Amino acid sequence: MIDFRGVALALSVLALPMLTLPVLAGGSARADSQLSVYTWTGYELPKFHAQYDKAHPEGAAITVFGGDDEAFAKIKSGFHPDISHPCIDKLPQWREAGLIQPIDTSRIHNWEHLFPLLRGLPGIVADGKVWMMPWDWANTSITYRTDLVQGHPDSWSLLWDPRYDQRLAVIDETKDAWLIAAIMAGVDPFKESLADIDKVSAMLRKQLPLIRLYTTDMTSVEQSLASGEVVAAMTWNATYVNLKKQGIPVAFMQPREKMLTWACGLVILKGASNLDKVYDFLNAMSSDETGVALMRTYGYGTANKAAFDSVPSADRAAMALPQDPEHALRDTLFVMPMQNRDAIAAAFQTVKAGG
Question: Is the pLDDT of residue 248 over 60?
């Protein structure tokens, strides 16, 4: 992830039990003694931080967002949580903006049990310090209706197929929609020159009239796929997993251009009010039981290797997760920070506005 990947995920905001205060989309009621956590919609579920709630009966005040750009803007404008949950490709932006502080990995009990590949991703360690605790990862690909799409498509080009005019959906994020358009335009998505941006913009303009849904609301995408209003959509694993559970005939494509792999994690904001509680929360989130809960709930991979390995291989296959994540994560296109990100963001908005 991930909305998660926004991850938004396929659940509406749920009311937390009495141990915590209600989650609100735009902000949360918060007692002074509560830890403040800002995370993707769907990750506020108590099962993901049960150990913390047991140790701290007042719970955590959890606020949710639908995308990393939304989260970054809100924090830049003055919102001050203790912990937040951006994705790897956005991490340098958060660090360069001076929003986060280094993590003391000696205080994270399962740090050495996290996948080494995830702990070593560019940006996690910078200036000799650790800036994020990896927590979740999964793939972005195309979920399509096998009864409504012809043949067995194996290319991202399906999202430009005029046969499915107004029956396609795309995730409204640069790291998703823009990145795939770059691949289809023959551009390195992570090293785009300013001239390359024009090529990618042209590819997106070609696609735009075909799209019925341009959104981070995965619930709407799932409903549209289930009804047949949309026959193919750029999604994360969770959409495929949820639709399969409903008995909808869908497949999760293995594109010949490679599917995307994303990873997100927890960061500590500058000025965090109580570091003891911060690390208690990080330890709860990185526990074995939480890792299993993440996989069972959404079909996403946990950064905790022991938790990942404890889920039977047949169950992982049903989630469209790899049997050997270290190998698979190297064999996909890992979503990393983009070059000229501000120019890309501006161009993306211009295309969507019809320019």
Answer: yes
In one-letter notation, the amino acid at residue 199 is K
Residue 4 located in a structural domain: no
Residue 276 pairs in a beta bridge with none
Is the residue at 6 inside a domain? no
Domain CATH number, residue 250: 3.40.190.10
* Nearest Cα to Cα of residue 114 among 307, 270, 339: 307
Same domain, residue pair 228 and 93: no
Count how many domains the chain has.
2
> DSSP class of residue 113?
G
Domain that residue 222 falls in:
140-260+336-352
149 and 255 both lie in a single domain: yes
Contact present, 173 and 167 (Cβ < 8 Å)? no
The residues, ordered by sequence, that sit 6+ positions from 183 with a Cβ below 8 Å of its Cβ are 156, 189, 257, 333
Q: What is the C-alpha to C-alpha distance for residues 351 and 116, in angstroms, rounded to an integer?
A: 39
Q: How far apart are CA 78 and CA 271, in angstroms?
A: 12
Backbone angles phi and psi of 133, in degrees to 5 = -100, 110
Clarify whether residues 315 and 188 are in a common domain. no
Q: Is the separation of the CB atoms in 36 and 63 below 8 Å?
A: yes
Terminal Cα distance for the chain, rounded: 29
Give the model confidence (pLDDT) of 184-201 as tens digits.
Answer: 999 998 899 989 999 999
Statement to judge: residues 284 and 272 lie in one domain: yes
Do 112 and 145 reside in the same domain of the chain? no
Does 69 share its domain with 181?
A: no
SS3 57: coil
| Domain co-membership, 133 together with 181 | no
Dmax (CA) for the chain in angstroms is 58
Residue 299 in tokens: 């079909």
Cα 271 to the chain's mean position, in Å? 25
62 has which bridge partners? 37
Whether the pTM exceeds 0.85: the reply is no
Tell which wins on pLDDT, 253 or 338: 253
Q: Which amino acid is at 44?
A: E
